[in-house]
């Protein structure tokens, strides 16, 4: 290959790159995915799991829009759990253990079935930029490849450096080389850069673990799917296990601190605050005598086990000695040590909401290059970048999800508005409208949008239309039909609830916290409905949530309307904030640097005060 031309080049084959390439190819664009190793496309670099708190919501949103992460997860799932079921539905989050090798294989197969997608194994070492517009890339083989748009999804590979104790060596992931050249090209173009750090725990030979001394952590009795298409169901779930560190483990680890790159100054980049290494845990929470660890199998047909909660960059002999003091790990053999990795990232305030860079037209960033951490955060950025690069070529307006529409919208708005100087991870607490952004209604929120874009195909739209009709009819029924004391009082008494003396609306009974649809499902008023349309668990759950939380949902929709008033007030892209002297100097500096699109975005910038926003509103004639 000496020269080729594509619509879109995607650099990097991780979670962001896979979603970006597949989205663009499905939108009819001729796409080239360039990766340094075709055998590691879609690889789970860290833990073998998808989803979790807020992350599960993101995967379901990707699925609703027509992405593939949920489908791949369902195909390769070995255990499923719905987290936080003891809390309200806004906090429920699906999580799955995946078979690591099968996960990557399933992604490769999925991508190879896309006729618009080509592959090339090589390292991109430079960018072709002319007059502020990206034109293509140059690879290590000296090949120039041209494209209308380029999406960079380089993960931890940009100038990656791995640390194990006092040992340091270049690498983008264990056993793989780092990527060089792109960072220099971007800095030359005027981009600001920084360094971040992440880490991973040691992998253990599961044959040497005494599971009888650990707590079993099984999956849900009735596992669900991630994808709303429900094509694959996990069977014969594989259990995880729970163990605990102890004082002896901590003492051994502390002896190695003088050789830790975290404490001896070798690591300069900031690590993830909410996923600390075992060294950090011992230091920050020194009053604790033990820390929980999760023993997670890497797949059905491998003995390799991931020790979640024991991320470390201490010397390998210290890691091994400490692990063997954990109950159940007395004879544990280590397959590979944990390590920390430092890599380049580019502060995301240099991006527009479309994830196109402000400095270079048609150049998009997605994933850890933007300072995020996590497969899910990377995947949703890749999907957004793939859509927006396609839209840019077609001359369409950018695809931008609002904060009240999706966690994806929250994540991207946080990145481009507030920036980040430490690895950004999504939490439910980051979403101010989380009662609306639940995992159960991601399809109701986003599938119509996905269909309009062209990613959510007919089968998704058909499923959604049937689901919406069922929900509407059932809601209407319970709001207008009564249940008799004879039918419901026995259940109310068993629940310790006050009984009723007259016929009462089913919706009123169902709004009680302890009452579920199981208690009213046999009532005369509902039997005809279920005999005709059947019992559909997801739809019934949706109706129950909408009934129990009706007041909260309505209040949140009112809040959305208020915030949208500010979101609808546009700020001209070339607006000169220095002309408004009544705005604080910090506010002027931040506004000039970030260039918010709307008054709403301006109000979320750190350092822009409410009085600054009021001045802007007056200046805009509002």
Please tell me about this protein's structure.
The chain has 622 residues and is an alpha+beta fold. The chain has 4 domains: 3-45 and 102-199 and 343-421, FAD/NAD(P)-binding domain, CATH 3.50.50; 203-341, Elongation Factor Tu (Ef-tu), domain 3; 458-553, tRNA uridine 5-carboxymethylaminomethyl modification enzyme MnmG/GidA (Arc Repressor Mutant, subunit A), CATH 1.10.10; 568-619, DNA polymerase, domain 1, CATH 1.10.150. Helices cover 36% and strands 18% of the residues. The protein is built from 21 helices and 22 strands. The strands form 5 sheets. Strands 1, 2, 6, 7, 8, 9 and 20 form a 7-stranded mixed beta sheet that branches. Helix 1 packs parallel to helix 9 (375-394), helix 2 (55-65) packs parallel to helix 11 (442-453) and helix 12 (458-480) packs antiparallel against helix 16 (524-533). The radius of gyration is 26 Å and the shape is globular. The model has no long low-confidence stretch (mean pLDDT 94).
Secondary-structure content class:
alpha+beta
CATH architecture of the largest domain: 3-Layer(bba) Sandwich
Number of helices: 21
Largest sheet: 7 strands, mixed
Task: Tell me the domain tally.
Answer: 4
Shape: globular
Report, as a whole number of angstroms, the end-to-end distance. Answer: 58 Å
